[in-house]
Model the fold of this input.
Amino acid sequence: MYLSDMHTHSIASGHGTRSTINDMARSASEKGIRLLGITDHGPATVDAGTSSYFRSLAFSPRERFGVELLFGVELNIMDTEGHVDLEEELISRLDYAIVSMHWHNFPSRGAEENTLAFLNAMQHPRVRILGHADNTNYPVDYRRLAEECLKTSTIFEINEASLAPDGYRGDTRDNCREILSCCRSLGLPILLSSDSHGPSHVGDFTYASRFVNEQLFPKELILNNHIPALKRFLLEGKLS
Done:
């Protein structure tokens, strides 16, 4: 059982889900989650969060149904310079950010340019997580990214939606295996993420958990159950 899920989406992300933050928190509570991250898509995603939505999160209750909430954003990387799709003033109000590549905003440019885009986006002080960097459609240099993670207080996620049989990012197991190998060698923590769009998969790490266990990845480097350390990392950028 894991106690946190830091990559989830509510109705503000579109994609057909009608679930509110309350719905997400209620589901998390029922599943024993203690810390929940709401990270709706940035505004470059069709029908996703608007600037006013992200601005209003500062006034949203931080505890619901006994679950502590952090409010972040899944930013879209827009170009190789690492520009993202939300104004600096709004990002700075949020607890943390995930940076991801999506085809409608950043078509894959090949390993060198994809890697450069991630490296540049990681320089933002609120960015903490590389979103589904396992995507087979976006080849990258995992070693270079992992080494930069140590410099910028950023980590990889192991994304449940990528590893699930109905995932749409290709067979990501080899990429996830390489991510874990790089992280193990550098002592870099990871995070298991559901990438849930709606309450049904909040806290669901069925395939991600099985995968990291099969790879014998050290439990002490999986941050989900180390709540104080996870919060310190997300809010302050402290990896130790």
Observations:
- The beta strands are 4-9, 35-41, 63-64, 67-76, 96-100, 127-130, 155-159, 190-193, 196-197.
